[in-house]
Specification:
Multidrug efflux transporter AcrB transmembrane fold, about 425 residues, Gyrase A, domain 2, 4-stranded antiparallel sheet
Amino acid sequence: MRTRSGILLLVIMVLVIFFGYVALQGLPLWNAMEVAPLTQEINLGLDLQGGLYVVYEAQVDPNSPDIDTQMSKAKSVIRERLDRKGQNEATISQQGADRIVVEIPGVEDPAGLADFLAEPAELTFVDPEGNIVITGQDVKSASPGYIEGQKPVVNFELYPDGTEKFAEATKKYVGQIISVKLDGASISDPRVESPIVAGKGYIEGSATIEEAKDLAIKIESGALPVELKQLETRTIGATLGANSLDTGITAGIIGIIAILLFMLLFYRLPGLVADISLAAYLLIVLYILVAGNITLTLPGVAGIILTVGMAVDANVIIFERIKEERRTGKTLRSAVDAGFHKAFRAIIDANITTLIAAVVLLVFGTGPIQGFAKTLMVGILVSMFSAIVLTRWLLRLLINLRINKDWLYMTRLRDGGAE
């Protein structure tokens, strides 16, 4: 038992050091493959990476019974456009009844992207008599391409109903023009050479392939159900974000080192156990952020640091309970079991109330507040695991080594108590 416990303790310490090294430095593998450091894998938010912050106001009656549906559809359209633009880390939230807040980190053309997201993108095919033949809702798919070698176009395919309507129109207006309009402005005026019955075609009028890509994105994401007006647009520089991140990390490292030293000096062997648990806690949180694709914001960094304090607080409560039980005459093993049992309720109550507050912030908050809430929730759950499960297990392994000197545990028996 003693040898087995010693080996397990050693393995745990080696694993914590190994995963800590991988988190900071990465790990080279074979054939030029490698595991990147977590600092490169974590998604950084707008305040850390820089980018675009824009507030849109829907031009609609706030008292309209359909406003919730319209706003939900508008957010879906914006999300679709951003995803197709490769901006998967952007956050979209509703502010009040008729405003949408969009935060997009790492934007090269903030003004152009803000305008692109707010364009209604109502696509219509209009016959020579001014009647609408089909709309963007009839388009099944759209993609950029070229014709005649270098001429950019948007290839499209229609749904069956749209195919039928378009076939009838092209049969009727052979030799005439069916205009393609976007938001009421003509972007292409092709002449119908022959009936188009296959439901496929292309739209000309794009000067560059990038314009064709944007038009294809607008068509596939659909038209906005409401007109959006830009109320506020802010561009945050990457330098400001980097400085904020460096400052936050530096403060966090100083605070964590101070906590580790305090626990080690004040609680000795249990403090060493708490330090190992705390290191494991931090690594688990970071790996969860990467695995869960959670965007880290500056308030999120604050949330992690806050839960570090909560994790340490749980260990302090446990160790003080153990000291109290030890003074009543219990053996060290019995004191540890009783201390955890009595501290369990207080730790759970404190963490559950904070978890409820984090859920409320996540549901009703926006932007950075949600970033804080997400890291706070993750941190709370992992801190409870590290304090209640991991610390207890490590202490039991430590006791199995039969290092039972009271001064190493900062405990003492009452006079006449049994070892």
